[in-house]
């Protein structure tokens, strides 16, 4: 029997939970009440519950009636510092905090999945670990959980997740093998020159001119230093000088930005090219430049075999026609990639567009975005069925995954070069 019927049974409760979480959003590392709600619900469903994991994280363990492997299912639960303008009857009661990225939907779906699967525990060939992660938006949440041992005791052999996607209609999901989301790194550049009177620029070393040259030249890193077949982005998001007058040439300019890549080799190469270019340009104009690079979240590289499991689960529960095959990866980022450094897994996109309200097509992080709650049943159906299928298909596989090596991803670099 399809897991869809079990998902439908928990639809109303999952929607109720989603609305409560949406109305009471909490920022990263501050998800205290959300964590309490999750823990109580999981305990009531008969799961073993661990709280305070990596800070405010919650883990629920559902042991099946038969021995087997362990699959993890992860949902993020933090909100964003945004003033909500949806006008929904369950809009945020915390001014300046909003679930604008759908983490309330993710959390409700995973709670519904836990409840539905708990009714099938005797049939499960293994264990399901439900991972409720804090602080995805501010980064660090996934790493905190991993360092706290979330992938151990019992050892997680595979992991899956979903993310709401306002480019797909509700009832559909988006799948892709290989590169799915980008690594998100950041940088600061400090350009130092010699300030002075704007009427006499020849007596200064203008850091604004140097910064302008650097901004233009950085775009050649992508177009001339990297293969045209590699996807990468360098974006400058801040330009600020220390001059506060119309007639004063600044002595210093600060730049800030982001780097997005999919390929690990490209990720390593980009900051090397940038540093050389930045310092050379500044020196050529008689100034100096300091380049600080901050390594962020890993790229999300979906494992082929886990994607196949999700596809089979979707075909069985929502129909093969509801599966959309994504042609290109996104340059957006998601810290789910941190888990994939250790175990094979995959994330899929959950359609949330409703024809009844154009706000459902607004971009994520919009202050007015809404999500079609019918997608909740789709999410529960696919996640639950995928967990069952993975455990059934791997019931005879006793091989162990060494933490730090993602089994099934040995050729991960080749797959997304």
UniProtKB/TrEMBL annotation:
Annotated cofactor note: The Mn(2+) ion enhances activity.
Single annotated GO MF: N-acetyldiaminopimelate deacetylase activity
Cofactor(s) the record lists: Mn(2+)
Keywords: Hydrolase, Manganese, Metal-binding
InterPro entries: Amidohydrolase, Bact_exopeptidase_dim_dom, Peptidase_M20, Peptidase_M20_dimer
Catalysed reaction equations from the record: N-acetyl-L-cysteine + H2O = L-cysteine + acetate
Entry annotated with the keyword Repressor: no
Binding site for Mn(2+): 101, 103, 137, 163, 365
Pfam family membership, one: Peptidase_M20
Family, similarity comment: Belongs to the peptidase M20 family.
Protein name: Amidohydrolase
């Amino acid at each position: 029997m399809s897991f869809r019927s079990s998902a439908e049974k928990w639809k109303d409760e999952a929607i109720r939970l989603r609305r409560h979480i949406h109305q009471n959003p909490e920022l990263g590392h501050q998800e205290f009440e959300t964590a309490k709600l999750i823990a109580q619900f999981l305990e009531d469903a008969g799961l073993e519950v661990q709280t305070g994991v990596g800070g405010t994280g919650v883990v629920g363990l559902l042991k099946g009636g038969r021995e087997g492997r362990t699959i993890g299912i992860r949902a993020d639960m933090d909100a964003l510092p945004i003033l909500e303008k949806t006008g929904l009857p369950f809009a945020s009661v915390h001014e300046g905090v909003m679930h604008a990225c759908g983490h309330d939907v993710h959390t409700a779906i995973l709670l519904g999945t836990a409840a539905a699967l708990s009714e099938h525990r005797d049939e499960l060939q293994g264990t399901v670990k439900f991972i409720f992660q804090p602080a995805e938006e501010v980064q660090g949440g996934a790493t905190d959980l991993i360092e706290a041992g979330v992938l151990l005791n019992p050892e997680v052999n595979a992991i899956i997740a979903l993310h709401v996607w306002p480019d797909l209609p509700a009832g559909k999901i988006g799948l892709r093998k290989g590169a799915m989301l980008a690594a998100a790194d950041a940088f600061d550049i400090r350009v130092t020159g010699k300030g002075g009177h704007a009427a006499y620029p020849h007596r200064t070393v203008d850091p604004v001119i140097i910064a302008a040259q650097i901004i233009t030249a950085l775009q050649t890193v992508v177009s001339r230093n990297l293969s045209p077949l590699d996807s990468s982005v360098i974006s400058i998001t801040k330009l600020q000088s220390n001059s506060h007058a119309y007639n004063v040439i600044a002595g210093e300019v600060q730049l800030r930005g982001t780097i997005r890549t999919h390929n690990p080799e490209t990720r390593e190469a980009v900051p090397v090219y940038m540093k050389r270019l930045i310092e050379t340009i500044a020196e050529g104009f008689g100034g100096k430049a300091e380049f600080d690079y901050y390594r962020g979240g890993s790229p999300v590289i979906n494992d082929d075999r886990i994607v196949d499991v999700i596809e089979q689960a979707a075909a069985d529960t929502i129909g093969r026609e509801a599966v959309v095959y994504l042609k290109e990866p996104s340059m957006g980022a998601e810290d789910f990639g941190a888990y994939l450094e250790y175990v094979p897994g995959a994330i899929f996109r959950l359609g949330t567009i409703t024809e009844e309200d154009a706000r459902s097509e607004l971009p994520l992080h919009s202050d007015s975005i809404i999500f079609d709650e019918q997608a909740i049943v789709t999410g529960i159906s696919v996640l639950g069925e995928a967990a069952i299928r993975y455990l059934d298909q791997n019931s005879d596989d006793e091989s162990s995954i060494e933490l730090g090596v993602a089994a099934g991803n040995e050729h991960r670099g080749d797959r997304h070069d």
